[in-house]
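TEACHING EXERCISE
Course module: macromolecular assemblies
Task: Read the component lines below, then compare them to the predicted structure of the full complex.
Student: A.B.
Group: 4
Components provided:
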Amino acid sequence: MADLKFSYENLKKFCVDIFCKFGFEEKQSEIITDVLLLSDLYGIDSHGTQRLLRYYKHLQTGLIKADAKAETVFETPISAVIDAKEGMGQLVSYDAMNLAIEKAEKSGIGMVTVKNSNHYGIAGYYAKMACDKGLIGISVTNTEAIMVPTFARKAMLGSNPIAVAMPADPYPFFFDASTSVVTRGKLELYKKLEKEMPDCWGLDADGKVNTNAPHVLDCIAAHKGGGILPLGGAYEKTGSHKGYGYGMLCEIFSSILSQGLTSDKTYSDGKALICHGFIAINPNLFGDPDAIKAHFSSFLQDLRNAPKADGCDRIYTHGEKEIIAMEDRLANGIAININTVKEMKGCAEGFGMNFSDYFGNIADNI
Amino acid sequence: MADLKFSYENLKKFCVDIFCKFGFEEKQSEIITDVLLLSDLYGIDSHGTQRLLRYYKHLQTGLIKADAKAETVFETPISAVIDAKEGMGQLVSYDAMNLAIEKAEKSGIGMVTVKNSNHYGIAGYYAKMACDKGLIGISVTNTEAIMVPTFARKAMLGSNPIAVAMPADPYPFFFDASTSVVTRGKLELYKKLEKEMPDCWGLDADGKVNTNAPHVLDCIAAHKGGGILPLGGAYEKTGSHKGYGYGMLCEIFSSILSQGLTSDKTYSDGKALICHGFIAINPNLFGDPDAIKAHFSSFLQDLRNAPKADGCDRIYTHGEKEIIAMEDRLANGIAININTVKEMKGCAEGFGMNFSDYFGNIADNI
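Instructor-supplied answer key:
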């Protein structure tokens, strides 16, 4: 019995209530919940309710300050820099992207960078916020250093995701990916499965390619060198310097332009202090938004219709798999790992909440 | 005797004169020459004088129209769309990036897309133009379809480079890379060397991974399917969908926002009609440009100083290799392949130019 299935509605009610118990106002809890559950709906299980307890721990240790009041420290009609004051990443990011959207609706573009923040969930959530308003949305964040630059043996960049969303029919383009070849969660999965990793994923403490997930994870945990490779692996001939380059672009639009901490200096002295970047672009800067959307939708359909490789029956455009996952999970429930359920239940009981009020007797026997 | 060395100054004088013979005005010839020779100086030999004859052929067949007058078809204070009217890619791109720079200097950002254009040389040239003015420069272009999306067997995207340059000391950050794992030139090199390709580079006509460069090149030439893989190779586990995604970002900022032709529809009926995108961002949108530059420079130095992988003695930041190549080539000359020299000489003589007026007797015996 590895997973239990919960309905989206029940999970939402539970998460909103428990984030209130963690010290957030109801409106704030709703925002945080919305970010986490979009991740669960989209099939990005690593960034959903699975993280609930981790956020709680970070609130307890003071890494995240629930009562932080973010401050806009620099602003122009099309840009801003926000100091998150060590608050919850989702909250400052929600406000930052809304500010970018407001600027884009008024002036064509809005670019907002954020410093001194915490983990903000999936990058794509904020790109989607802009996309839902008919804009192109871009969202990036740096993270704890985990990615080793080409020819190095120490992690200097984060998983540094870049997310871009743009309106299209029948569903938007939604691209959300780390610039490292994979994230740490994938190594943890391979460890669990006792599976050998592809030789473009990890480096050991000497900077040598290593396909043993537990070993690479140990190297990362011990901060003794090693880590995850950029997209493109370890060698220039496989494009390592390109993934490293995309990681740098993420760093430029998060930590550099906000003058915050670069990935290699975050998560130190009990503070995360990571940085984000948000851009909203109004397609009306380039012509009729409906015509642009139709042009884009037609190209996406051409991609789906292109001849398939032997053994493949479908070509996906970015965001399609997320839509498929969401439709399934809204209809059939969201599967949550039993250990995560135990954590959620234990945490709820600690706050005097009755788990069965939310989920019935589904978790009675765990 | 595979290469001959020429001085930058002599090559420059020659190229300016020969582009005048091709039908361009002197100022135009200087711009085209500057783009080509930066490529040679930076060590990107595939995009320099090596291409001279190809441009000439494209002018002869009418693919490129030397007398085209590009037209701005849409404009706002921070954006524009230009119709290149099938003119020389370098010329419309030079003007387009200058327009983006002008807007960025006045309003913080300039974003210019171009449609109905031709090959524009290295993407990085235009990113560098903005960087030379203290701005962040971004340049993208779509190309003839050469990249096969994940799970497909037909090329639908171009090599779709993304270039980004940003001021830093002692030299700028300069990232210029195709979003395909390699470009066609790399396959041609492997064919020449009779070397087996890595298994993340090419697909055959059935969409199966193939490591034989001549075979994959034949598939591409015959338009019977197959092509070059995205950065990340053929499989999702190695990040194929990510390279495909970056290729899509390039397409969005070139062909989609300009409403021009996507890569899969270019180079048809004797017309190229490719699209470019140029963005200049003023760092003063985020604070003091000098402070941002210092912050960035310090991070780049930290990257260079990071512990090296076993067997590696240097970590490069993006643009460093280009600076090293340029210093060498300015001091010691630019090596040009003997076949390219023959082409240049033959072409010059066809126009009644005396090759030795430019290069002395260096090419007398070829």
